[in-house]
Design a protein that fits this description.
single chain, mainly alpha
Length: 200
């Protein structure tokens, strides 16, 4: 995640320092909460793909501007982007101005729609890899987290087979943590049990 670890052992998940309100709010309200909406899952996968080579806080700070430029991440709209629309996006300093990442997002919108047209619900399909419920890890410290796992490698391979890009196993693992397919909050973090209780 490109984390800056706090040395204060009293904080929930050390990668979310109290002095960074945006990061802390993301940790306290979003990260690890199970997401089942297909469009929201697709959006998060795109944002994680845009993060490649950057820190997550960079994306978080630009997220509102990125959402605005990318048609609220509605796949049906992004799938219709042409070169002229790409050029327009590239003039926006509020987004990640990478032609490769923008083209990947367009292709990923088309891949999402292809799945829908074949009767594959993006959410049901993704969650099938975890049996429909979150995997609850018992991490004492966020530094114990692997960069990728056999499951994230399996999902990355399956996404690529469906035409998705910027979805390697490291990106997919970060995505799985963020959308609650995996509960990787540290066990002493209040959010670890709070999120688990959403499913009890």
């Amino acid at each position: 995640m490109g984390m800056n670890l706090s040395s204060d052992e009293t904080l929930p998940c050390r990668w979310a320092p109290a002095e960074d309100e945006l990061y802390r709010a993301y940790h306290d309200e979003e990260w690890g909460v199970p997401e089942y909406d297909p469009r929201a899952l697709w959006e998060k996968l795109q944002l994680d793909g845009m993060q490649a080579g950057l820190s997550w806080i960079t994306i978080l700070r630009k997220r509102d501007a990125i959402r605005e430029e990318f048609d609220s991440f509605i796949p049906e709209q992004i799938a219709m982007w042409d070169q002229e629309r790409i050029e327009k996006a590239l003039t926006n300093p509020g987004i990640i101005r990478s032609p490769t990442k923008i083209k990947a997002t367009i292709g990923n919108a088309r891949a999402f729609i292809d799945m829908q047209e074949k009767g594959e619900d993006f959410s049901e399909w993704l969650w099938s890899f975890t049996g429909g419920t979150p995997i609850v890890n018992q991490l004492r410290d966020i530094t114990e987290v692997p960069a990728k796992t056999p499951l994230s490698e399996e999902i990355a391979k399956a996404l690529k087979a469906r035409g998705f890009k910027f979805c390697g196993p490291v990106i997919v693992y970060a995505f799985m943590q963020a959308v609650g397919m995996i509960n990787d909050h540290e066990t002493r973090c209040p959010r670890h049990s709070e999120i688990q209780e959403l499913h009890s």
